[in-house]
Design a protein that fits this description.
alpha/beta; eight-stranded parallel beta sheet; 8 helices; disordered N terminus
């Protein structure tokens, strides 16, 4: 719960950093390969949609968003951001390194943190990283002679915030530059890296929404565990009945709300009805998450979480994971996202039915009585 809340807050901080970073100083965007020759010193931030090579010294931040390679043989005094291309660091980066969609190979030294989203991180030779290494969707490989002073994380909100803040600042300015100058891609659309930056922002927003959702679903499990357990028992005991009742509740809620709006006496009840419906939806989806994770771990023949909050988090993670990673995986990603949406919709509807059956989870679930079989009719004996 504590870590999930931290990630959700970090995502919101990242959005604020993005809005502030977009108005920070804007580097000159270059539509060509950038090379800082050996013995040369270049002061100021550099941004390009091509490749970047630093053989000398670059005093400032560097951003490459075109999918080209980034190589630092010399020294970079600021932060390095790369989107879509490989990063090679035989030299020195005196700041943070962030990469989205490309591998990172460090055979030199990075004094700050290193983060990679969707790419492998390798410390080869005598490579050294003084800060933390974060890899989301990729592995971390260390050589025998490499040095790493920080920790290895599967996710770092601070690193992601820094990456997206700098990338958005460059993408926003470059987009304005292209629109004014008429510089578009060959097929008549905007540059692919600009579209990729917008997609990255969209994924951040989606992640923030999913992180907020898991915090909401954990609240009933923490403060009203008995209600969640009773509702989950109703879903497990009679899922299709709960689904039918939930469907009727969804269909009938909005007409009932409309009747309240047109009625003078019903208008004061509208906020209460909306709040009650929202609470019932969150409580019901939390209960459905418990059932979903049980079925999931039974299917893979593994032991699931023991505590109720862990069960809710695991069940919701299945749905949220299908939605989020469905946006990242080509070809079958659309199918995964569709399955995630269907599970969320079905879970919400079934959860609402379970809430009705258990009176907001306050009553234990009682299975419907099974009618006794009729006794066979024995004809009277013939006279």
């Amino acid at each position: 719960m504590k870590n999930i809340t931290k990630y959700a807050l970090t995502a919101m901080v990242a959005v604020l950093a993005l809005s502030q970073g977009a108005y920070a100083r804007r580097p000159e965007v270059r539509h060509e390969d950038v090379v800082v020759a050996k013995g040369e010193t270049l002061s100021g931030d550099v941004a390009t949609d091509k490749s970047l090579t630093v053989d000398g010294k670059l005093e400032g931040n560097a951003t490459a968003v075109g999918g080209g390679s980034v190589t630092v043989n010399g020294e970079l005094t600021g932060d390095l951001v790369s989107m879509g291309g490989p990063v090679y660091i035989p030299g020195l980066v005196d700041g943070d390194v962030s990469s989205i969609g490309g591998p990172v190979d460090v055979s030199g030294k990075v004094t700050g943190n290193l983060s990679a989203v969707g790419g492998k991180v390798t410390l080869s030779g005598t490579g050294q990283v003084d800060g933390n290494i974060s890899a989301l969707g990729g592995s971390v490989e260390k050589g025998a002679n490499s040095k790493h002073k920080g920790s290895v994380n599967s996710f770092s909100g601070d690193a992601l915030k820094s990456t997206l803040a700098q990338a958005l600042r460059t993408v926003r300015y470059t987009g304005r530059y292209n629109w004014r100058s008429g510089d578009v891609s060959e097929d008549g659309g905007h540059s692919p890296w600009l579209i990729g930056g917008l997609v990255g922002i969209g994924l951040l927003i989606l992640f923030s929404m999913l992180a907020t959702g898991i915090v909401l679903l954990l609240l009933p499990a923490v403060f009203f565990p008995k209600n969640v357990e009773n509702s989950a028992a109703a879903i497990s005991g009679d899922m299709w009945r709960a689904c039918g009742i939930g469907a009727i509740a969804l269909v009938g809620f909005f007409p009932a709300l409309l009747m309240m709006v047109v009625s003078i006496l019903g208008i004061p009840l509208v906020p209460f009805a909306l709040m009650l419906f929202a609470v019932a939806g969150v409580l019901g989806l939390s209960a459905f998450s418990v059932v979903l994770q049980a079925r999931f771990f039974e299917g893979i023949k593994k032991a699931g979480p023991v505590g109720l909050p862990g069960k809710v988090a695991a069940g919701y993670a299945v749905m949220a994971g299908l939605l989020f990673f469905g946006k990242l995986i080509p070809l079958i990603g659309g199918l995964l996202s569709l399955i995630g949406v269907m599970l969320l919709a079905f879970g919400t509807m079934t959860g609402l039915g379970a809430i009705w059956m258990t009176k907001m989870g306050t009553r234990p679930f009682t299975p419907a009585p099974v009618p006794a079989p009729l006794a066979p009719v024995i004809p009277p004996p013939a006279q």
